[in-house]
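Person: I keep going back and forth on a fold encoding question. Show me how you would write down a chain together with its backbone fold. Please set it down just below, with no commentary around it:
Helper:
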Amino acid sequence: MKFKAKVEVIPKEEYSRIHDGSIRLLEEMGIVFEWDEAVDICKKAGLKTDGNTVFFTRKVVEDALAALPKRYEWKAQNPEQNVTVGDGFILHPPFGAVYVQEPGGRRRNGTMADFDNFQKLSQALPLVKATGSLPITPGDTGPEERYLRMMHSALKHTDKPVIGAITTYERANQVLDLVELAAGEKLGENKAYCATAINPLSPMKWSPESCQTMVAYAKRWQPMFYIPCTMTGTTAPIGLMGAAVQQNAEILSGLTFGQLISPGMPGVYSPGSSTAYMRNAAYVTGTPEMMLLNNINLQMGREFYQLPTRTMCGMCSAKTVDACGGLNDAELTHGDAGGAQILNECIGILDETGRLASFPQDPDRLARW
């Protein structure tokens, strides 16, 4: 399926202003990497540092952008399930829910059994092109084993391309070792089997776990979705253009960092920001402003940088499957219309901040499935 974007929030004349503003942030303010090995990688590349703050130059950023592939093949255990990132439409499961809503509306903490069932459901749905991810957090497993068990579940129950999660350097490599066993070959250049979503700690910071995951994946050429989740008015400027500049700078820092480790490795430009609810400073989903902001950056990623793009599309503030959820979803389909090539948070996600994952609400249908 070829995309022709229909939604444009800003004129093309603004692209250079956003890019230049982002470069100025990276050159003058810098961005913090909260892991010494990540800082050392930047030092070896000749970048100026001050403690854990790294200052990216225009040349280093633009050289990295030039090296990034415009499209790449995302491989699966079953070669018939391979997809091309950057050319077409890829839907994958949501990321980060904590609670499950059962048929009838009962809400409870997620379990590993729920995670298994979401993998089976992803395999059964033809529209879902990649799986794994974190559709529900299995609260009955500890962090020492959680990420391996989740990847084992994805590889066992599906034959589609898979998505990992942010963790420590050691655990990220263990997950990639497991993927390598399933793939039957070494991960490396032009052998992208396992992607992961990487979130900066806005404003302008990468946490230790994000740094460690980036290094582990980049060394083995596995793709990353760089996803700022800034909140206008708290962790980003309250104005949408200012927030777009910061979001762009954070994405560029991640894309550039990956290229410092493995030049030419794949990366995806992935805006995922929203507004803050000013009464409690919470991240709010299901708002028109959310997609206005992200569509600004989608235009940047798609047209100015000509990179593969991804965004969240379908998040809502509804507590159950109802008209409110439908209206919120309709507002957030602008991610699709804005030209995002990879879509997340589209299926079975409810509640503010995407905390609630919902199974099909027809008990008989669920039992048959």
User: Anything to note?
Assistant: The chain has a mean pLDDT of 90. Residues 106 and 289 are 31 Å apart (CA to CA).
